[in-house]
Amino acid sequence: MTESTAAVSNPLATEPDSARVSQKVMILYGLGQTGAQLFRDAPAVLLPLFMTTMLGISPWLAGIVVLIPKMWVIFCDPIMGSYSDHLKPKVARRPFLAGGAILTSLTFIALFAFSGFPSPTIAALVVGIVFFIASTAFSAFSVPYLAVASELSSDPHERTKILSVRIVFAVVGVIMGVGLAQPLVFMLGGDAAAWRTMAIIFGTVCLGAMLATAYGVPKDFGAAHHSAAKSVRERFAVVRENKPFIVMTLTYLVQSIGQASSYAVVGFIFLYAVGDINLLLPFVLVMSSGSISSQPVWLKISRKIGKEGAFWLACGGWILVTITWFWLEPGTDKLATLPVLGEVSTQDLLVLVRAFIIGCTNAGFSVLSFSLLTDTISRQKALGKSVDEGLFSGIFSAVEKLGFALGPMLAGLVLSIAGFESSVGGAVDQDAGAVKGMILCYSLIPATILGLSLLVFTQYKKAMHQA
Protein backbone atom coordinates (compact mmCIF):
# COMPACT_ATOMS: atom_id res chain seq x y z
CA MET A 1 0.00 0.00 0.00
CA THR A 2 1.44 3.36 -0.99
CA GLU A 3 1.68 6.31 1.40
CA SER A 4 -1.01 8.31 -0.44
CA THR A 5 -3.38 5.33 -0.59
CA ALA A 6 -2.99 4.74 3.12
CA ALA A 7 -3.82 8.35 3.84
CA VAL A 8 -7.00 8.14 1.81
CA SER A 9 -8.16 4.87 3.34
CA ASN A 10 -7.54 6.32 6.80
CA PRO A 11 -8.38 10.02 6.48
CA LEU A 12 -8.28 10.50 10.26
CA ALA A 13 -4.69 9.31 10.62
CA THR A 14 -2.86 11.77 12.82
CA GLU A 15 0.37 13.58 12.10
CA PRO A 16 3.45 14.02 14.34
CA ASP A 17 4.04 16.96 16.69
CA SER A 18 5.24 19.07 13.75
CA ALA A 19 1.59 19.39 12.74
CA ARG A 20 0.63 20.89 16.12
CA VAL A 21 -0.55 24.50 16.25
CA SER A 22 0.27 26.78 19.19
CA GLN A 23 -2.51 28.02 21.43
CA LYS A 24 -1.59 31.62 20.59
CA VAL A 25 -2.11 31.02 16.87
CA MET A 26 -5.39 29.21 17.53
CA ILE A 27 -6.67 32.16 19.58
CA LEU A 28 -5.57 34.79 17.08
CA TYR A 29 -7.15 32.78 14.28
CA GLY A 30 -10.36 32.29 16.24
CA LEU A 31 -10.71 36.01 17.04
CA GLY A 32 -11.51 36.77 13.43
CA GLN A 33 -14.66 34.66 13.67
CA THR A 34 -16.13 37.06 16.26
CA GLY A 35 -16.11 39.82 13.66
CA ALA A 36 -17.20 37.47 10.89
CA GLN A 37 -20.10 36.19 13.01
CA LEU A 38 -21.23 39.71 13.80
CA PHE A 39 -21.37 40.54 10.12
CA ARG A 40 -23.12 37.28 9.22
CA ASP A 41 -25.75 37.90 11.89
CA ALA A 42 -26.45 41.42 10.58
CA PRO A 43 -28.23 40.30 7.39
CA ALA A 44 -29.50 37.08 8.95
CA VAL A 45 -31.03 38.50 12.14
CA LEU A 46 -30.87 42.29 12.37
CA LEU A 47 -31.32 43.51 8.81
CA PRO A 48 -34.77 41.97 8.14
CA LEU A 49 -36.07 43.44 11.39
CA PHE A 50 -34.52 46.85 10.64
CA MET A 51 -35.96 46.95 7.12
CA THR A 52 -39.48 45.85 8.05
CA THR A 53 -39.94 47.85 11.27
CA MET A 54 -37.82 50.96 10.60
CA LEU A 55 -37.86 51.45 6.83
CA GLY A 56 -41.36 50.11 6.02
CA ILE A 57 -40.05 47.50 3.57
CA SER A 58 -42.33 44.50 3.01
CA PRO A 59 -40.93 41.15 4.20
CA TRP A 60 -40.80 39.66 0.69
CA LEU A 61 -38.89 42.70 -0.62
CA ALA A 62 -36.55 42.61 2.37
CA GLY A 63 -35.78 39.00 1.44
CA ILE A 64 -34.88 40.05 -2.10
CA VAL A 65 -32.64 42.85 -0.77
CA VAL A 66 -30.64 40.20 1.09
CA LEU A 67 -30.80 37.67 -1.76
CA ILE A 68 -29.31 39.71 -4.63
CA PRO A 69 -25.94 40.49 -2.96
CA LYS A 70 -25.76 36.89 -1.76
CA MET A 71 -26.31 35.68 -5.31
CA TRP A 72 -23.35 37.83 -6.33
CA VAL A 73 -21.04 36.17 -3.79
CA ILE A 74 -21.69 32.80 -5.43
CA PHE A 75 -19.37 34.13 -8.12
CA CYS A 76 -17.35 36.51 -5.97
CA ASP A 77 -16.22 34.00 -3.32
CA PRO A 78 -14.60 31.48 -5.72
CA ILE A 79 -12.99 34.36 -7.63
CA MET A 80 -11.69 35.87 -4.41
CA GLY A 81 -10.37 32.48 -3.28
CA SER A 82 -8.68 31.77 -6.59
CA TYR A 83 -7.14 35.24 -6.68
CA SER A 84 -5.82 34.89 -3.13
CA ASP A 85 -4.30 31.51 -4.13
CA HIS A 86 -2.61 33.19 -7.09
CA LEU A 87 -1.12 36.01 -5.00
CA LYS A 88 -0.29 33.92 -1.93
CA PRO A 89 3.39 33.31 -2.88
CA LYS A 90 3.93 37.07 -3.30
CA VAL A 91 1.83 38.75 -0.59
CA ALA A 92 0.30 35.82 1.36
CA ARG A 93 -3.35 36.16 2.40
CA ARG A 94 -2.84 39.11 4.77
CA PRO A 95 -3.82 41.94 2.33
CA PHE A 96 -7.15 40.19 1.69
CA LEU A 97 -7.80 39.67 5.39
CA ALA A 98 -6.87 43.24 6.37
CA GLY A 99 -8.58 45.01 3.47
CA GLY A 100 -11.70 42.92 3.86
CA ALA A 101 -11.79 43.62 7.61
CA ILE A 102 -11.69 47.39 7.17
CA LEU A 103 -14.29 47.65 4.41
CA THR A 104 -16.59 45.07 6.00
CA SER A 105 -16.67 47.03 9.27
CA LEU A 106 -17.38 50.36 7.55
CA THR A 107 -20.22 48.96 5.46
CA PHE A 108 -21.67 47.19 8.51
CA ILE A 109 -22.09 50.61 10.10
CA ALA A 110 -23.52 52.07 6.88
CA LEU A 111 -26.24 49.38 6.71
CA PHE A 112 -27.95 50.77 9.81
CA ALA A 113 -26.82 54.40 9.68
CA PHE A 114 -29.62 55.86 7.53
CA SER A 115 -33.41 55.73 7.81
CA GLY A 116 -34.93 58.95 6.41
CA PHE A 117 -35.69 57.64 2.91
CA PRO A 118 -38.46 59.13 0.71
CA SER A 119 -40.09 55.71 0.26
CA PRO A 120 -39.64 52.05 1.20
CA THR A 121 -38.65 51.26 -2.40
CA ILE A 122 -35.78 53.75 -2.35
CA ALA A 123 -34.79 52.47 1.09
CA ALA A 124 -34.67 48.92 -0.27
CA LEU A 125 -32.53 50.06 -3.21
CA VAL A 126 -30.00 51.91 -1.04
CA VAL A 127 -29.75 49.13 1.53
CA GLY A 128 -29.32 46.63 -1.30
CA ILE A 129 -26.41 48.61 -2.81
CA VAL A 130 -24.67 49.01 0.54
CA PHE A 131 -25.16 45.33 1.32
CA PHE A 132 -23.76 44.43 -2.12
CA ILE A 133 -20.55 46.33 -1.32
CA ALA A 134 -20.47 44.86 2.19
CA SER A 135 -20.84 41.31 0.87
CA THR A 136 -17.97 41.82 -1.56
CA ALA A 137 -15.77 43.18 1.24
CA PHE A 138 -16.69 40.29 3.52
CA SER A 139 -15.79 37.88 0.74
CA ALA A 140 -12.27 39.33 0.69
CA PHE A 141 -11.92 38.42 4.39
CA SER A 142 -14.02 35.30 4.87
CA VAL A 143 -12.70 33.19 1.97
CA PRO A 144 -8.97 33.50 2.78
CA TYR A 145 -9.89 33.17 6.46
CA LEU A 146 -11.49 29.78 5.84
CA ALA A 147 -8.57 28.71 3.62
CA VAL A 148 -6.15 29.34 6.51
CA ALA A 149 -7.95 26.65 8.56
CA SER A 150 -6.87 24.05 5.99
CA GLU A 151 -3.31 25.38 5.92
CA LEU A 152 -2.58 25.58 9.65
CA SER A 153 -2.11 21.83 10.17
CA SER A 154 -1.99 18.53 8.30
CA ASP A 155 -3.43 16.65 11.30
CA PRO A 156 -7.23 16.18 10.93
CA HIS A 157 -7.84 16.13 14.69
CA GLU A 158 -5.68 19.22 15.16
CA ARG A 159 -7.84 20.99 12.57
CA THR A 160 -10.94 19.98 14.51
CA LYS A 161 -9.33 21.49 17.62
CA ILE A 162 -8.57 24.73 15.73
CA LEU A 163 -12.17 24.92 14.53
CA SER A 164 -13.42 24.23 18.07
CA VAL A 165 -11.52 27.30 19.27
CA ARG A 166 -13.03 29.18 16.33
CA ILE A 167 -16.52 28.15 17.49
CA VAL A 168 -15.87 29.69 20.92
CA PHE A 169 -15.18 33.04 19.27
CA ALA A 170 -18.18 32.52 16.99
CA VAL A 171 -20.27 32.17 20.16
CA VAL A 172 -18.93 35.54 21.35
CA GLY A 173 -20.10 36.98 18.03
CA VAL A 174 -23.52 35.39 18.44
CA ILE A 175 -23.86 36.79 21.97
CA MET A 176 -23.14 40.28 20.69
CA GLY A 177 -24.87 40.13 17.30
CA VAL A 178 -28.00 38.24 18.36
CA GLY A 179 -28.17 38.52 22.13
CA LEU A 180 -26.99 42.09 22.75
CA ALA A 181 -27.56 44.08 19.56
CA GLN A 182 -31.34 43.99 19.40
CA PRO A 183 -31.94 44.51 23.16
CA LEU A 184 -29.41 47.37 23.00
CA VAL A 185 -31.44 49.01 20.24
CA PHE A 186 -34.60 48.81 22.34
CA MET A 187 -32.77 49.99 25.46
CA LEU A 188 -31.56 53.06 23.55
CA GLY A 189 -35.10 53.89 22.51
CA GLY A 190 -35.63 51.79 19.38
CA ASP A 191 -35.35 54.77 17.02
CA ALA A 192 -32.99 55.46 14.12
CA ALA A 193 -30.31 56.88 16.43
CA ALA A 194 -30.40 53.69 18.50
CA TRP A 195 -29.81 51.49 15.44
CA ARG A 196 -26.96 53.76 14.34
CA THR A 197 -25.29 53.64 17.76
CA MET A 198 -25.54 49.86 17.84
CA ALA A 199 -23.94 49.66 14.37
CA ILE A 200 -21.02 51.89 15.37
CA ILE A 201 -20.32 49.84 18.50
CA PHE A 202 -20.42 46.47 16.81
CA GLY A 203 -18.76 47.68 13.61
CA THR A 204 -15.78 48.72 15.75
CA VAL A 205 -15.73 45.27 17.37
CA CYS A 206 -15.75 43.69 13.90
CA LEU A 207 -12.77 45.75 12.89
CA GLY A 208 -10.67 44.90 15.94
CA ALA A 209 -11.43 41.17 15.87
CA MET A 210 -10.81 40.69 12.16
CA LEU A 211 -7.59 42.72 12.14
CA ALA A 212 -6.34 40.62 15.06
CA THR A 213 -6.47 37.60 12.76
CA ALA A 214 -5.10 39.45 9.75
CA TYR A 215 -1.95 40.56 11.60
CA GLY A 216 -1.82 37.92 14.34
CA VAL A 217 -1.63 34.71 12.33
CA PRO A 218 1.77 34.24 10.63
CA LYS A 219 1.36 35.00 6.95
CA ASP A 220 3.56 32.16 5.66
CA PHE A 221 1.28 29.27 6.67
CA GLY A 222 0.54 26.90 3.83
CA ALA A 223 3.27 28.25 1.54
CA ALA A 224 4.60 24.75 0.98
CA HIS A 225 1.28 23.66 -0.50
CA HIS A 226 1.27 26.26 -3.25
CA SER A 227 0.43 24.65 -6.58
CA ALA A 228 1.69 25.47 -10.02
CA ALA A 229 -0.14 28.03 -12.09
CA LYS A 230 -3.24 26.62 -13.78
CA SER A 231 -6.02 27.97 -15.92
CA VAL A 232 -9.43 28.69 -14.42
CA ARG A 233 -10.85 25.64 -16.18
CA GLU A 234 -8.15 23.41 -14.70
CA ARG A 235 -8.72 24.82 -11.23
CA PHE A 236 -12.46 24.09 -11.31
CA ALA A 237 -11.85 20.67 -12.84
CA VAL A 238 -9.89 19.73 -9.72
CA VAL A 239 -12.84 20.80 -7.59
CA ARG A 240 -15.33 18.76 -9.64
CA GLU A 241 -13.16 15.67 -9.26
CA ASN A 242 -13.29 15.90 -5.47
CA LYS A 243 -16.55 14.03 -4.86
CA PRO A 244 -16.45 14.23 -1.03
CA PHE A 245 -16.11 18.00 -1.30
CA ILE A 246 -19.12 18.17 -3.62
CA VAL A 247 -21.25 16.10 -1.21
CA MET A 248 -20.16 18.13 1.83
CA THR A 249 -20.78 21.41 0.03
CA LEU A 250 -24.31 20.44 -1.04
CA THR A 251 -25.04 19.21 2.48
CA TYR A 252 -23.86 22.51 3.91
CA LEU A 253 -25.89 24.53 1.40
CA VAL A 254 -29.15 22.82 2.38
CA GLN A 255 -28.36 23.13 6.08
CA SER A 256 -27.57 26.83 5.70
CA ILE A 257 -30.96 27.47 4.13
CA GLY A 258 -32.69 25.83 7.09
CA GLN A 259 -30.63 27.63 9.70
CA ALA A 260 -31.01 30.98 7.94
CA SER A 261 -34.80 30.70 7.79
CA SER A 262 -34.81 30.44 11.59
CA TYR A 263 -32.17 33.16 12.05
CA ALA A 264 -34.28 35.57 10.02
CA VAL A 265 -37.19 35.41 12.48
CA VAL A 266 -35.43 35.02 15.83
CA GLY A 267 -36.09 38.67 16.69
CA PHE A 268 -39.74 38.31 15.73
CA ILE A 269 -40.03 35.12 17.81
CA PHE A 270 -39.03 36.81 21.06
CA LEU A 271 -40.92 39.98 20.27
CA TYR A 272 -44.22 38.34 19.31
CA ALA A 273 -44.30 34.55 20.00
CA VAL A 274 -42.43 34.53 23.34
CA GLY A 275 -43.74 37.98 24.17
CA ASP A 276 -40.61 39.11 26.00
CA ILE A 277 -37.72 40.63 24.07
CA ASN A 278 -35.73 40.80 27.31
CA LEU A 279 -35.52 37.00 27.32
CA LEU A 280 -33.47 37.06 24.11
CA LEU A 281 -30.17 37.85 25.82
CA PRO A 282 -30.54 35.08 28.48
CA PHE A 283 -31.53 32.74 25.64
CA VAL A 284 -28.36 33.52 23.72
CA LEU A 285 -26.19 33.30 26.84
CA VAL A 286 -27.59 29.88 27.76
CA MET A 287 -27.23 28.72 24.15
CA SER A 288 -23.65 29.98 24.14
CA SER A 289 -22.85 28.14 27.35
CA GLY A 290 -24.06 24.95 25.67
CA SER A 291 -21.91 25.64 22.61
CA ILE A 292 -18.74 26.26 24.61
CA SER A 293 -19.17 23.54 27.23
CA SER A 294 -19.95 20.89 24.61
CA GLN A 295 -16.78 21.40 22.54
CA PRO A 296 -14.59 18.93 24.50
CA VAL A 297 -17.44 16.40 24.30
CA TRP A 298 -17.70 16.67 20.51
CA LEU A 299 -13.92 16.32 20.19
CA LYS A 300 -14.07 13.08 22.18
CA ILE A 301 -17.10 11.78 20.30
CA SER A 302 -15.52 12.51 16.92
CA ARG A 303 -12.38 10.60 17.94
CA LYS A 304 -14.40 7.67 19.29
CA ILE A 305 -17.05 7.16 16.59
CA GLY A 306 -15.58 9.27 13.79
CA LYS A 307 -16.46 12.71 12.50
CA GLU A 308 -19.25 11.38 10.29
CA GLY A 309 -21.01 9.61 13.15
CA ALA A 310 -20.66 12.64 15.39
CA PHE A 311 -22.08 14.81 12.60
CA TRP A 312 -25.17 12.60 12.33
CA LEU A 313 -25.65 12.72 16.10
CA ALA A 314 -25.39 16.52 16.27
CA CYS A 315 -27.75 17.09 13.33
CA GLY A 316 -30.32 14.62 14.66
CA GLY A 317 -30.36 16.32 18.05
CA TRP A 318 -30.78 19.76 16.46
CA ILE A 319 -33.71 18.58 14.36
CA LEU A 320 -35.54 17.08 17.34
CA VAL A 321 -35.24 20.15 19.56
CA THR A 322 -36.10 22.52 16.70
CA ILE A 323 -39.38 20.70 16.05
CA THR A 324 -40.50 21.46 19.61
CA TRP A 325 -40.61 25.21 18.88
CA PHE A 326 -43.85 24.55 16.98
CA TRP A 327 -45.66 24.40 20.33
CA LEU A 328 -44.21 27.70 21.56
CA GLU A 329 -46.58 30.14 23.22
CA PRO A 330 -46.26 33.05 25.67
CA GLY A 331 -45.99 32.00 29.31
CA THR A 332 -48.89 32.92 31.59
CA ASP A 333 -47.94 31.24 34.89
CA LYS A 334 -45.21 32.11 37.39
CA LEU A 335 -43.15 28.95 37.82
CA ALA A 336 -40.15 30.30 39.71
CA THR A 337 -38.03 33.33 40.53
CA LEU A 338 -34.49 33.11 39.22
CA PRO A 339 -31.45 35.34 39.81
CA VAL A 340 -31.18 38.17 37.23
CA LEU A 341 -34.22 36.89 35.30
CA GLY A 342 -36.74 37.38 38.08
CA GLU A 343 -40.10 35.62 37.63
CA VAL A 344 -40.18 33.03 34.84
CA SER A 345 -43.04 30.95 33.47
CA THR A 346 -42.98 27.31 32.42
CA GLN A 347 -42.71 28.37 28.78
CA ASP A 348 -39.80 30.70 29.61
CA LEU A 349 -37.95 27.86 31.30
CA LEU A 350 -38.57 25.57 28.30
CA VAL A 351 -37.17 28.28 26.03
CA LEU A 352 -33.94 28.29 28.06
CA VAL A 353 -33.76 24.47 28.13
CA ARG A 354 -34.10 24.44 24.35
CA ALA A 355 -31.39 27.10 24.16
CA PHE A 356 -28.85 24.89 25.90
CA ILE A 357 -29.62 21.85 23.73
CA ILE A 358 -29.55 23.93 20.55
CA GLY A 359 -26.19 25.37 21.60
CA CYS A 360 -24.72 21.90 22.12
CA THR A 361 -26.01 20.39 18.88
CA ASN A 362 -25.46 23.42 16.67
CA ALA A 363 -21.87 23.78 17.86
CA GLY A 364 -21.33 20.10 17.11
CA PHE A 365 -22.38 20.03 13.50
CA SER A 366 -20.96 23.50 12.80
CA VAL A 367 -17.46 22.47 13.88
CA LEU A 368 -17.73 19.12 12.14
CA SER A 369 -18.98 20.67 8.89
CA PHE A 370 -15.81 22.71 8.53
CA SER A 371 -13.61 19.91 9.86
CA LEU A 372 -15.04 17.50 7.28
CA LEU A 373 -14.38 20.17 4.66
CA THR A 374 -10.70 20.30 5.62
CA ASP A 375 -10.61 16.49 5.39
CA THR A 376 -11.76 16.62 1.77
CA ILE A 377 -8.93 19.05 0.99
CA SER A 378 -6.43 16.90 2.91
CA ARG A 379 -7.61 13.88 0.92
CA GLN A 380 -6.86 15.75 -2.29
CA LYS A 381 -3.29 16.29 -1.11
CA ALA A 382 -2.96 12.63 -0.06
CA LEU A 383 -3.86 11.58 -3.60
CA GLY A 384 -0.91 13.60 -4.82
CA LYS A 385 -3.07 16.21 -6.56
CA SER A 386 -2.57 19.95 -6.43
CA VAL A 387 -4.89 21.89 -4.12
CA ASP A 388 -6.03 25.50 -4.22
CA GLU A 389 -7.29 25.96 -0.65
CA GLY A 390 -8.64 29.41 -1.46
CA LEU A 391 -10.78 28.15 -4.33
CA PHE A 392 -12.21 25.26 -2.31
CA SER A 393 -12.88 27.58 0.61
CA GLY A 394 -14.37 30.19 -1.71
CA ILE A 395 -16.90 27.74 -3.10
CA PHE A 396 -17.79 26.46 0.37
CA SER A 397 -18.13 30.01 1.66
CA ALA A 398 -20.28 30.96 -1.33
CA VAL A 399 -22.83 28.23 -0.68
CA GLU A 400 -23.07 29.25 2.97
CA LYS A 401 -23.84 32.82 1.95
CA LEU A 402 -26.29 31.61 -0.68
CA GLY A 403 -28.04 29.58 2.00
CA PHE A 404 -28.17 32.60 4.29
CA ALA A 405 -29.77 34.54 1.43
CA LEU A 406 -32.34 31.93 0.44
CA GLY A 407 -33.30 31.33 4.09
CA PRO A 408 -34.40 34.95 4.80
CA MET A 409 -36.15 35.09 1.43
CA LEU A 410 -38.07 31.93 2.30
CA ALA A 411 -38.91 33.34 5.74
CA GLY A 412 -39.99 36.66 4.21
CA LEU A 413 -42.29 34.87 1.77
CA VAL A 414 -43.87 32.81 4.57
CA LEU A 415 -44.37 35.92 6.72
CA SER A 416 -45.95 37.82 3.83
CA ILE A 417 -48.36 34.95 3.15
CA ALA A 418 -49.11 34.73 6.88
CA GLY A 419 -50.14 38.40 6.92
CA PHE A 420 -47.21 40.18 8.55
CA GLU A 421 -47.71 43.97 8.68
CA SER A 422 -44.65 46.12 7.93
CA SER A 423 -44.15 49.43 9.74
CA VAL A 424 -42.03 52.57 9.91
CA GLY A 425 -40.44 53.79 13.14
CA GLY A 426 -40.84 50.64 15.23
CA ALA A 427 -42.62 47.31 15.71
CA VAL A 428 -46.44 47.06 15.66
CA ASP A 429 -48.85 44.38 16.85
CA GLN A 430 -49.31 41.32 14.60
CA ASP A 431 -52.29 38.97 14.34
CA ALA A 432 -52.27 35.27 15.23
CA GLY A 433 -51.70 34.18 11.63
CA ALA A 434 -48.52 36.24 11.31
CA VAL A 435 -47.21 34.89 14.62
CA LYS A 436 -47.89 31.32 13.49
CA GLY A 437 -45.90 32.05 10.33
CA MET A 438 -42.95 33.17 12.47
CA ILE A 439 -43.14 29.96 14.49
CA LEU A 440 -43.22 27.82 11.35
CA CYS A 441 -40.05 29.54 10.12
CA TYR A 442 -38.41 28.75 13.45
CA SER A 443 -39.57 25.14 13.87
CA LEU A 444 -40.94 22.77 11.24
CA ILE A 445 -39.45 24.49 8.20
CA PRO A 446 -35.79 24.51 9.33
CA ALA A 447 -36.10 21.03 10.89
CA THR A 448 -37.44 19.60 7.62
CA ILE A 449 -34.74 21.30 5.56
CA LEU A 450 -31.97 20.01 7.83
CA GLY A 451 -33.44 16.53 7.51
CA LEU A 452 -33.18 16.83 3.72
CA SER A 453 -29.51 17.78 4.06
CA LEU A 454 -28.81 14.46 5.77
CA LEU A 455 -30.15 12.64 2.72
CA VAL A 456 -27.39 14.33 0.74
CA PHE A 457 -24.80 13.53 3.41
CA THR A 458 -25.47 9.78 3.12
CA GLN A 459 -23.14 9.83 0.08
CA TYR A 460 -20.18 11.38 1.94
CA LYS A 461 -18.62 8.22 3.39
CA LYS A 462 -18.77 6.37 0.08
CA ALA A 463 -17.21 9.30 -1.76
CA MET A 464 -14.51 9.80 0.88
CA HIS A 465 -13.23 6.22 0.65
CA GLN A 466 -13.19 5.94 -3.12
CA ALA A 467 -9.68 5.78 -4.54
Task: Give an overview in words.
Helices cover 76% and strands 1% of the residues. The chain is mainly α and 467 residues long. The chain has one domain (22-222, 229-464): Growth Hormone, Chain: A (Up-down Bundle). Strands 1-2 form a two-stranded antiparallel sheet. A hairpin with a 3-residue loop joins strand 1 (336-338) and strand 2 (342-344). Mean pLDDT is 84; it is low at 1-18 and 222-228.
CATH structural fold name: Growth Hormone, Chain: A
Number of separate strands: 2
CATH domain class: Mainly Alpha
* Main pleated-sheet profile: 2 strands, antiparallel
The number of distinct helices, counting runs of at least 4 residues, comes to 18
Order of helices and strands: HHHHHHHHHHHHHEEHHHHH
Let me know the CATH homologous superfamily.
MFS general substrate transporter like domains
Counting structural domains, the number is 1
Poorly predicted spans: 1-18, 222-228
The assigned structural class equals mainly alpha
Strand order of the largest sheet: 1-2
The N- and C-terminal alpha carbons lie at a distance of 12 Å
The radius of gyration computed from the alpha-carbon positions, rounded to a whole number of angstroms, is 22 Å
Assigned CATH architecture:
Up-down Bundle
Query: Share of helix among residues?
Result: over 70%
Which shape, going by the Cα principal axes? globular
Strand content: under 5%
Assembly type: single chain
Overall residue-averaged pLDDT value: 84
